[in-house]
């Protein structure tokens, strides 16, 4: 399917780097002005964080957040957030990190 095709990797480089856990590429793309919250319009408006979380790529998840990606944004069209993506695939380290992030975010907004 289209998943193996080269086209989507060129069209959505940040999602691809997130899926592969390529932290150096993520930082490079962000420094070139790529939006870390960009929505993949041909895949449920999924965001790079959802991809890094789905594949249990904790370092990529952290790198994306450092670039300005926001794990607390509303769910995508499939009804998923980075946390529910990580939970579905049972990536415990990523789940723990995102849960802790949510707790801290909730604490700082009080």
From TrEMBL:
It comes from the Eukaryota. GO terms for molecular function: ubiquitin-protein transferase activity. It holds the Pfam family Ank_2. SMART domains: ANK (SM00248). The keyword Transcription does not apply. The keyword Repeat applies. Keywords: ANK repeat, Repeat. GO terms for biological process: protein K6-linked ubiquitination. This is Ankyrin repeat domain-containing protein. The lineage of its organism: Eukaryota, Sar, Stramenopiles, Ochrophyta, Raphidophyceae.
């Amino acid at each position: 399917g289209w998943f193996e095709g080269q086209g989507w990797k060129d069209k959505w480089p940040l999602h691809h780097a997130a899926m592969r856990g390529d932290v150096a590429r993520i930082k490079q793309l962000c420094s070139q002005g790529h939006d870390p919250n960009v929505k993949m319009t041909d895949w449920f408006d999924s965001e790079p964080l959802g991809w890094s979380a789905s594949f249990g790529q904790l370092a990529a998840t952290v790198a994306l957040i450092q670039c300005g990606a926001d794990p607390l944004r509303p769910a995508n069209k499939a009804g998923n957030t980075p946390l529910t993506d990580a939970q579905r695939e049972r990536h415990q380290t990523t789940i723990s990190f995102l849960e802790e992030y949510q707790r801290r975010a909730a604490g700082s907004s009080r």
